[in-house]
Amino acid sequence: MNLNLKFNKLSLAGLLLASTASAEAQEKKPETIEVRGHTLSHLDRFTKAQLVIDRKEIESANAPSLLDYMESIPGISVKRSAGLGSQASLYMRGSRNGDVLILIDGIPVADPTLISGGFQLDHMGVEQVERIEVSKGPMGLAYGSDGLAGVINIITAKNKAGGRLLGEVGSEDFARLAVNYQHLVSDELSISVGADGLQHGGQSDAKMENGNTEKDPYKRQGARSSFFWTKGPWQALILAESSSSRKDLDDLDFSDNVFKDDTNYTVDTDWESIRGQVQFSKDGFQSTFNGGKGSTVREYKNEADLIFSGTQNSKYEGGQSFVQWDARMDLRGVDFIVGLQSRQEEAESKTNFSGFQGSFDQSRKSQGVFTVADYQNENGFGLKVGARQDKYETFSQQTTYSLESSYNWGAHELWLRSGTGYKAPSLYQTYGLVVNEDLKPEESQGLEFGYNVAAGDVSFKALAYQRVLSDEIVYIDFTSGYQNTDGEGTFEGGELEIGYELASGHELSLWQSSIKYKNDQNTTLLLRPKLSRMFRYRGRISDHSIHLQALWTGERSSTTESLSPYTNLSGSYQWQQCEKLRWFIRGENLLNQEIQQTEGYSLLTRKYYGGLRWTF
After folding, report:
1. Phi and psi of 430, rounded to 5°?
2. What pLDDT does 522 receive?
3. Which residues of 373-387 are buried (b: 16+ CB within 10 A; e: fewer)?
4. What is the pTM of this model?
5. Measuring CA to CA, which residue among 441, 388, 451 is closest to residue 417?
């Protein structure tokens, strides 16, 4: 679906002025939002070890990409090759890109045509997100393949009467506009719609210090709708959304192995998703049926120019469908869950590089069954155990498990968690370059233990973990394609978090994350920091609020050099003009440090933005 939402700074500025006038005309009365009883499949069914980024934090930071919020979580690092829309990687506790399973409303999303088989979070807007759930560590129990290092579940906003609007402009011809509205048709039925658009004029993705000057812009537009119905013990929900984007790219000049401006190179991406759920709840019993289908189409085009004589016209189409049924009940004080899942992946590609053509069209199915038992007693002891088995058409069955125990006394908690996960080889790895149907799934086993306490105004959390990866899939060369490696790789690390409430409305927090990695091949972690730290302050005085965040990222290894440490200081200020209207300004890289996340690409520059949020 291509909505072709076009806007520029002039039209957006007019919208800001019109919104201001309308908001000032409204009477300052308390906002009423109706929240209706709806439950989606969330991670707490499978684990208690999760972190939640709520809507308040999303609006406090005002970042335009979901990846920006991931960086605020201990143990997660994000790498972009350049600006918004460029190739991005998300690393969780030293994992590779694609080792983290992405869910939207509890439904797995993926692009099987990518090498990693993962999902690019830039395809999705931020304004429809209500909260983000993150669980670190192997999570094969929950959804089978892909939760090798952890799971991220993005929960979209639902069942809130009224609407909200965001408008923003900023450096490098940046502009963002998002509108969401929900209408209560009756006590039993509600309908919501939304749309958003984003554009970034950009800079040269290829390193400007090497003389590259061509701007590489990015544009994205999206739309969504949902229907929610409830009657007695029954609930039903249908959601549909889509996005279209275009990004200008640069390319590698193999004559001197340097990234350079490519004036004709672009990628167009279309993403669509439809999700649904039916749920019955009564007398401690709950039965849920949910499912979804998503598709991604990427098309690369590149004509010959003065620097690059080659041409490219390639199209990749990937899709994934998912169906799940589960039942939840209380049996003599034990919360018991049993469920069935089915997943199908499809991938098709047609490539043409300067006359060299290639293609593949493949699909794969899997079925899984899982069970979870959760016990909590009055003395503070808790135990959650689960097991799962998945069956594939192309390789052997996969069995995973999870075990969590915890003990609470007063404000203190101790916990121990062990689990396994696996990642099936992507369809691209299996069929994209060289057909290798003997590829085995990568397997991961994790162990984590920790302690946390919340006493008065202070909170403290410390943990240590280990994760062992085996049968890792790596690229060998053009003729051998992808192969499983022998031996194992071990990730070991720790995380420390401290929070302090200075006074009412003022919060300080800081964390440190460290990791070390060793394997039988004596390779190292590329582009992933071994040490990172973050300091954050959030404060509010009357109608004014401030959010400051300083992320220090340590040295990272690259293919030919080490990338220097940096501190990225970002911040935002908001003014609540009236009950319905907030103005804000924000900035990135306020210290104007030389931040390079990928070798050969441009440095991240200092940027400023400003806009408004209006509820109606």
Report:
1. -80, -40
2. 63
3. ebebeeeeebebebb
4. 0.87
5. 451
93 CB neighbour count, 10 Å cutoff: 27
Residue range 523-551, pLDDT digits in tens: 677 788 999 999 999 999 999 999 999 99
Helical (H) or strand (E) element with 10: helix 9-25
DSSP letter assigned to residue 505: T
Tell me the one-letter amino acid at 219: K
Report the alpha-carbon distance of residue 68 to residue 61 in Å, rounded. 9
Task: Give the span between the Cα atoms of 234 and 248, in whole angstroms.
Answer: 47
Count Cα atoms within 13 angstroms, Cβ side, for 409.
2
Strand, helix or coil at 435? coil
pLDDT at position 521, please? Answer: 67
Radius of gyration of the chain (CA): 24
CA separation, residue 41 to residues 143, 368, 462 (Å) = 11, 16, 28
Q: Do strands 531-541 and 506-519 pair parallel, antiparallel, or not at all (unpaired)?
A: antiparallel
* H helix runs in 136-188, sequence order: 140-143
Mean local confidence (pLDDT), 234-243: 94
Q: Which of 258, 317, 321, 325 is nearest to 112 (CA)?
A: 317
Tokens representing 459?
A: 């909170």
**In the predicted structure, residue 495 carries a pLDDT above the cut 90:** yes
Contact residues for 61 (Cβ-Cβ < 8 A; gap 6+): 68, 69, 72, 547, 549, 570, 572, 586
Burial classification of residue 531, based on how many CB atoms lie within 10 Å of its CB (0-12 exposed, 13-18 middle, 19 or more buried):
middle
Which has the higher per-residue pLDDT, 423 or 125? 423
Q: How many angstroms separate the CA atoms of 545 and 500, rounded?
A: 17
Contacts of 32 (CB under 8 A, 6+ apart): 161
HEC sequence for 304-332? CCCCCCCCEEEEEEEEEEEEEEEEEEEEC
Tell me the two tokens of residue 286.
Answer: 């709950």
Within 10 angstroms of residue 75's Cβ, the number of other Cβ atoms is 25
Give dist(CA 194, CA 18) in Å, integer: 19
Backbone angles phi, psi at 375, to 5 degrees: -125, 130
**Which CA distances in Å does 238 have to 174, 314, 503, 575?**
33, 33, 43, 36
Q: Tokens 């069956």, residue? A: 391
- Separation between Cα atoms, residue 516 and residue 445, nearest integer Å: 16
Cα dihedral 394→119→57→556 (10° resolution): 100
Handedness of CA 114, 119, 121, 127 (dihedral sign): positive
pLDDT in tens, 568-590: 999 999 999 999 999 999 999 99
- What is the token pair recorded at 301? 């085009």
Q: What pLDDT sits at residue 29?
A: 34
By C-alpha distance, which of 334, 341, 422, 340 is closest to 385? 334
DSSP 488: E
